[in-house]
Amino acid sequence: MTRTLDAYLHDRKAGQLVQSENGQLAFTYDVDYVAESGPPISVSMPLRQEIYDDGTVRPYFSGLLPDERARSRLAAALGISPGNAFGLLEIIGGECAGALSLIPEGADLPDPSSDEPEPLDEGRLARLLATLRVRPLLGGEEGVRLSLAGSQDKLAVRVADGMIALPRNGHPTTHILKPFIAGLEGTVENEVFCMRLAARMRLDAPAVTKATAGGIDFILVERYDRLQEKDGVIRKLHQEDFCQALAIPPELKYEDEGGPGIARCQNLIQRHTARPAADRLVFQKMLIFHYLVGNADAHAKNCSLLYRSPTPELAPLYDVVCTAAYPHLSRNLAMKIGGRAVPDTLQLEHWHTIVLPTPPARRMLSATLRHMAQAIGPEADRLLEEMDAEGIHHPILKIIRRIIATRASHVMRVTEKME
Ligand SMILES: Nc1ncnc2c1ncn2[C@@H]1O[C@H](COP(=O)(O)OP(=O)(O)OP(=O)(O)O)[C@@H](O)[C@H]1O
Ligand SMILES: [Mg+2]
Predict the structure, then answer these.
(1) Which ligand is in closest contact with the Cα of 146?
(2) Counting C-beta atoms within 10 Å of the first and last residue's C-beta, which end of the chain has fewer, N or C?
């Protein structure tokens, strides 16, 4: 049986996602939407009247869903196959990353003023956090229809007046909540530290805080793709991650498995963002920051394009964790730098490959490397004091601080001839 979902971008119906009898996906923009030159849902699917077929459509739509193990757990809880992206989106595709909503064919888009979000007291929140472990994103819970990518447990929520609430029926959320990762010590403190350090290093990174309910620690990060207007209305900004934009399925997000490396990411920025030169520089700074902070997991689904206007910009930094603090996690960089994945083997010539092969570009890169390597230690120390005063401490932070010191002195050494 052919099945169809209506795809809305913001509050306009952009087109339809169709699953054919043999399970292939197709997407077609609405005739009116094309005639009115509505914004495309992805740079991988420019506006046109012809159908887009499975090869392009699946990476984008499957890319809205949780990855790997989280998807398998969700599928098991819902009694459907993890490969059935359409079936999963039918259940949880109401509120996704960006401004796309998938709703049953012919149904009306939910009215944001109806249905107040359910405020969660500590007990209810603790129970929901426990449920997340077996039912990622609370998929299938009455009225909860939201999806986010990534392999970790998470939930999108609304925070208003300091209270966490659970919106239903695809209503907009303002924050993402990520509980600690079982088996990895102090991931909450780790991510709070890394994200705040990024902001101190003058990278655009959303505000993040640590919270606890029923003894379960979690991070609460502001959604950069949601803007709260003065009247309380939440406006969505569209976004898509680099794998979606490049039509690469989420299961191939790592470069080693065929996913995009740095060159393809920079090429994407070059071709599509409003200020490619500035965004490429920011992307390069992000890469340096990931390196200095010991995050090996900066794959192409951890970078996004954000649409404040029809032409996107590079989205803020997100999902930064010092993975090097956990000896049993892979040390290899998700995206190689100059063909190298092992962090301690990176020399200046490898860093040079991330910029244009001109002397001024190389000089500027070396200066940025040195500047960031010099600044990160003192900033980390100030941040540790700030977090301590806030009551956020964990032994993992000391380990991360040592990793930062090692990485920073390595960068200083390989850029020494610059002096
Ligand atoms: N602050 C944010 N604002 C808006 N969208 C976000 C934010 N943080 C994450 N996202 C979106 O949610 C998705 C999942 O988040 P995140 O990458 O933090 O999860 P994860 O499960 O830790 O990922 P991974 O599998 O890479 O470890 C991202 O790919 C991005 O689309
Ligand atoms: Mg991620």
Answers:
(1) 1
(2) N
- Candidates 217, 279, 297, 319; catalytic one: 297
* SS3 call for 310: coil
Asked about 297 being catalytic, the answer comes back as yes
**Which residue's alpha carbon is at the smallest distance from atom 24 of ligand 1?**
150
Tally the C-alpha atoms within 13 A of residue 232's C-alpha that lie toward its C-beta.
Answer: 7
Point out the ligand 1 atom lying closest to the alpha carbon of residue 67. 25
The CA-based angle 114-95-19, given to 5 degrees, is 120
Locus of tokens 């998938």 = 102
Angle separating helix axes 276-293 and 395-414, nearest 10 degrees? 120
Q: State what percent of residues in the chain have pLDDT above 90.
A: 86
Residue 378 has pLDDT above 70, yes or no: yes
pTM above 0.85, yes or no: yes
Q: 149 alpha carbon to ligand 2 midpoint, in Å?
A: 7
Ligand 1, atom 8, residue with closest C-alpha: 318
279-295 per-position pLDDT tens digit? 999 999 999 999 999 99
Q: Which domains does the chain have, with CATH numbers?
A: 3-104 (no CATH), 112-226 (no CATH), 246-414 (1.10.1070.20)
In short, whether 150's Cβ falls inside 6 Å of ligand 1 is: yes
Q: Mutate which of 286, 302, 303, 321 to test ligand 1's pocket (most atoms within 8 Å of Cβ)?
A: 302
Residue 353, both tokens? 């490959």
- Report the alpha-carbon distance of residue 255 to residue 25 in Å, rounded: 25
The Cα–Cα gap between 164 and 278 comes to 36
- Structure-block tokens of residue 243: 């794998």
Average pLDDT over residues 109-127: 86
Q: Ligand 1 centroid vs 36 CA: distance in angstroms?
A: 32
State the virtual CA torsion across 378, 177, 117, 14 in degrees, nearest 10. Answer: 100
Tell me the average pLDDT across 35-59: 97
CA atoms within 13 A on the CB side of 375: 16
Q: Which residues pair with 216 in a beta bridge?
A: 213
Residue nearest to atom 7 of ligand 1 (CA): 223
Find the 42 Cα to ligand 1 centroid distance in Å. 18
DSSP element (H, E) containing 318: none
* Single-letter code of the amino acid located at 190: N
In three-state secondary structure terms, 390 is: coil
